[in-house]
Amino acid sequence: MIDILTSYTFIIVALGTVILGIASGIIGTVSVIKGQSLIGDAVGHATFPGVVLAFMLVGTRETLALALGALLLGIVAFFFIQVITEHSRITLDGALALVLSSFFGLGMALMSFVQGNPDFDGTQGLSDYIFGQAAYMLRSDVYLILVASIISLMIFIIFYSQLKIYVFDPVYSRSIGISNKMMNFMILAITITLIAVGLKAVGAILIVNLLIAPAVIGQLWSNRFSHVLAIAGIAGAVSAFTGTYISTAGNNIATGPAIILVLSTMVLLSLLFARKGLLRRSMLKKKAGEY
């Protein structure tokens, strides 16, 4: 155990995933409260073809190029969701399902094409972007996550007061001059950015869980927005560190699934023992019945 915790590779990987977990937990809380968490799911799946297309264009698995490709396709996917919901009778959940399956199917088709094409070399690592494999993260990957997460958190802190009003009272926020469209776009832009840089660590399929589960944990333990944000950030960090350790210590265990399993366990424990958990509710009902 000590050897793993002190190894350079583990420290680099854990630093990247923990930072990503903190930022994703905090930013994802806003999306969950606003009921937009499934948009992140659709966008997360839609970023995968962007990774493959970027690889096809640049010919290398350079992290920044692949992240930019993922970011671009995430924006395109969100644009399609908006167009479908605003200019057709298809509901939001239908549009999300359509975009998610179509874009991810495109990514898998492109993946099959490049893997069977002798003109493209070095495709082995692309499959890691589906489920995530942080064990192969480089220092440059951690720097990219660090920069994206710090910028995202700085933007969140700067606009914290406006965001808080927008989240809980959009009518009042509009009346005092806060642009709800700008707030919504800002959160979605930050979310797409975190998804793009976190694909290598967690994967396109599982990245949305890192945005949703910490927020659920935070809401189960507290009603205060600031406390929910803090708990969500801590939950994201703890799950990222523990999942990375399990992935490093185990054999052939992908980092993304390991992190999500730890998060799911934390959600289950919170559902049972948290302030608003099932056991506490049953105890309060029992006491109320006695009186």
From TrEMBL:
Membrane topology annotation: Multi-pass membrane protein
Top-rank taxon, per record: Bacteria
Entry keyword annotation includes Cell wall biogenesis/degradation: no
Any Pfam family: ABC-3
Transmembrane feature ranges: 6-26, 38-58, 64-83, 95-114, 142-161, 228-247, 253-274
Predominant cellular place of this UniProt entry's protein: membrane
Subcellular location, record wording: Cell membrane
InterPro entries cross-referenced by the UniProt entry: ABC_BtuC-like, ABC_TroCD
The keyword tRNA-binding appears for this protein: no
Keywords on record: Cell membrane, Membrane, Transmembrane, Transmembrane helix, Transport
Matches recorded under PANTHER family: ABC-TRANSPORTER METAL-BINDING PROTEIN (PTHR30477), METAL TRANSPORT SYSTEM MEMBRANE PROTEIN CT_069-RELATED (PTHR30477:SF3)
Stated family: Belongs to the ABC-3 integral membrane protein family.
Protein name: Metal ABC transporter permease
